[in-house]
Specification:
By secondary structure, the chain is of the alpha/beta class. It contains 17 helices and 14 strands. It folds into two domains: 263 residues, no CATH class; 316 residues, Carbon-nitrogen hydrolase (Nitrilase/N-carbamoyl-D-aminoacid amidohydrolase), CATH 3.60.110.10. The strands form two sheets. Strands 1, 2, 3, 4, 5, 6, 7 and 14 form an eight-stranded mixed sheet that branches. It has a six-stranded mixed sheet with strand order 8-9-10-11-12-13, covered by helices on one side. A hairpin with a 5-residue loop joins β12 and β13.
Length: 604
């Protein structure tokens, strides 16, 4: 068991570093989680030994971190454990390859670049799992990670791995310090220590080189990010504040029943009731109302009754409403249908969408006009046909969710190979959601007459910073996330997903408001600080002020520039490693088969 203890310790440190509980901050454990693993691998030279030890370590860690996914799908959860372990073993394989050709120290110092590149490249693949990132667990440490407005989350990944490498380097030097230098028991690629120092004297002497080096590492690794944070905090405090008064609803609907035909109307009425209660308590107080993902569980453009009902309320509220809903695009001509639609025998595309209702000042609500003309009450359940009235609220063009959860909403590559659609997991929502291409933003006028543009994102899209950066570049002054994470019951998964949003706010330098069906509904400022939040699994509303911004951070203007640079460096390192191995093989061949310098030909 002792031989496995370093790997088990690394797995435990890795798991505990993730935000699992609101009041428990153990993110600093990620700064050293790789240390036991790397020190143990120092003595492992076989490629297979490195691979299975690394894989086992990350598999155990991911099983602890992502156990919340088992609440929704046992098969999907177990599959993710294997996928996560594989993704994090790839950089260790590259690390071992460099070690064989360039030596231990060169490979060790290359590891931050390699890991960052591999992590980013994985996120560019179809079906990538968005939360597979070493940087995301640091999201709650907003006071330390302000530099992500330059590098994105990939900079935090680099920082984490570099911190681990520096600690490993100090640990190796420490081991040399307490060893008997006179016996020559050191590897050839590691310099001997300068003098004989026993472990007792090393501990008693705080002025030793090892302690000074360790103190310098901590000072630099924490001091530089904290200095940048101070700069950004001062800049933020001096900037002019343009704020938007927002009301978020959290209806607390059971997601497994939300799409049922029998309950959809009741769930919509719940959101209407919550909003009505909040507006009666604070009339004329809000510039925008935001509802969660598919809070209107109907195909909105085609469902006139639902559209009229919600529009009537928006007209009475005199406040724009941004809500998740469904949208549909029909293909009556079979020739226009994609291969996937034909395989699934569908004549339509179904989108997870967002719409903006804007009240029309010049038209009374249709409910008031019906009452006046005794035309009866409107009901989304149907009934006798009602006279067609002009709608009291304008419905915007939709925003369609573009980043779909792999193997849940859509199977990767199923558009080209439709038979793959059968691999979808049962997650309670089906796998007939199609990816959108429309990146529409939503523009409206506030109570003070200011024109505001808001970008919407839906659920899983929060894990794609480059996609959100594109919305900010298009003019989004704030990000409104609509989500539904009740699939995972009351597990620690909701805390992780809510915490990761803080990273997005800092990257974009935008306020992020999140309307979640079951929680956590939250408001985050451009510094990544949570300014307001609701308890999870409770039906209530949340109100507050969201800061607007039109400035573009370096990351928004140049998304993923840092990991692209790391990818180029990784290619260069691997090319150098291959060249080194080929050169060594050529030298060995010359030693075995020396070339004679005597000229060939007849002798006389």
């Amino acid at each position: 068991m002792k031989r496995f203890s370093p790997y088990l310790l690394s797995a435990l440190l890795f798991a505990l570093a993730h935000p699992m509980f609101p009041s428990l901050y153990l993110e600093f454990l990620e700064w050293v989680w790789m240390v036991p693993l790397l020190l143990a691998l120092r003595d492992v030279t076989a490629f297979g030994g490195v691979i299975w030890r690394s894989y086992l370590t990350v598999f155990i860690g991911w099983a602890l971190v992502m156990s919340w996914l088992l609440w929704a799908t046992a098969a999907g959860g177990v599959l993710l454990f294997f996928v996560g372990a594989f993704v994090y073993t790839v950089p260790m394989a590259a690390f071992h390859f460099l070690r064989r050709s360039l030596g231990w120290r060169a490979a060790l110092w290359s590891l931050p670049v390699i890991w960052t590149a591999c992590e980013w490249l994985y996120h560019q693949t179809p079906g990538a799992i968005g939360w597979l990132s070493l940087g995301l667990p640091q999201s709650r440490l907003w006071w330390l990670i302000q530099f992500v407005d330059l590098t994105g989350v990939w900079g935090v990944t680099f920082w984490i791995v570099l911190f681990n490498v520096l600690i490993v380097d100090c640990a190796q030097r420490w081991r040399l310090r307490i060893a008997d230098c006179g016996k020559g028991q050191f590897p050839n690629d590691v310099a001997l220590c300068e003098d004989n120092v026993s472990w007792k004297s090393a501990i008693r002497n705080p002025q030793s080189a090892i302690f000074r080096r360790l103190a310098l590492i901590v000072a630099l690794m924490l001091g530089l990010p904290l200095g940048y944070t101070a700069f950004r905090w001062i800049e933020h405090s001096r900037a002019e504040k343009n704020e938007l008064s927002i009301l978020l609803t959290q209806p607390n609907v059971n997601p497994w029943l939300k799409t049922s035909l029998e309950t959809r109307a009741a769930e919509l009425r719940r959101s209407l009731t919550l909003t009505n209660q909040a507006l009666r308590a604070q009339p004329n107080s809000f510039d925008l109302i935001v509802w969660p993902e598919t809070a209107i569980p109907f195909v909105l453009p085609q469902d006139e009754q639902t559209r009229m009902l919600v529009g009537d309320h928006v007209s009475r509220w005199q406040t724009p409403l941004l809500s998740g809903a469904l949208n549909l695009r029909s293909y009556p001509d079979p020739a226009e249908r994609s291969a996937l639609l034909k395989f699934q025998n569908r004549d339509y595309e179904l989108f997870n969408a967002a719409f903006l209702f804007t009240p029309r000042k010049d038209i009374q609500s249709s409910a008031f006009r019906r009452k006046k003309s005794n035309s009866g009450n409107h009901s989304i359940e149907g009934g006798a046909p009602k006279p067609k009235l002009q709608e009291a609220a304008t419905l915007s063009a939709p925003y369609h969710k573009q980043k779909l959860m792999p193997f849940v909403e859509q199977v990767p590559l199923a558009e080209k190979f439709p038979a793959l659609a059968g691999l979808a997991l049962d997650f309670g929502v089906g796998n007939n959601i199609d990816p959108g291409v429309e990146s529409n933003l939503f523009t409206f006028t506030t109570r003070t007459g200011r024109t505001v543009t808001v970008a919407a994102a839906i659920c899983y899209e929060q894990f794609f910073p480059a996609h959100l950066a594109g919305l900010a570049r298009q003019g989004g002054e704030m990000i409104a996330l609509m989500t539904n994470i009740g699939w995972f019951s009351q597990s620690h998964g909701q805390h992780q997903i809510a915490a990761f949003l803080q990273m997005r706010a800092i990257e974009l330098r935008r306020s992020v408001v999140c309307a979640a069906n079951t929680g956590q509904t939250t408001m985050i400022d451009p510094l990544g600080r949570v300014t307001a939040e609701t308890p999870w699994w409770s039906a209530q509303t949340l109100s507050g002020q969201a800061q607007l911004s039109s400035t573009l951070s370096f990351y928004v203007r140049h998304p993923d520039l840092f990991p692209k640079f790391c990818a180029l460096l990784t290619v260069g390192l691997l090319a150098l490693s291959v060249a080194t191995l080929l050169l060594a093989a050529w030298k060995r061949r010359r030693q075995l088969f020396p070339i004679s310098l005597e000229p060939t030909g007849a002798r006389f």
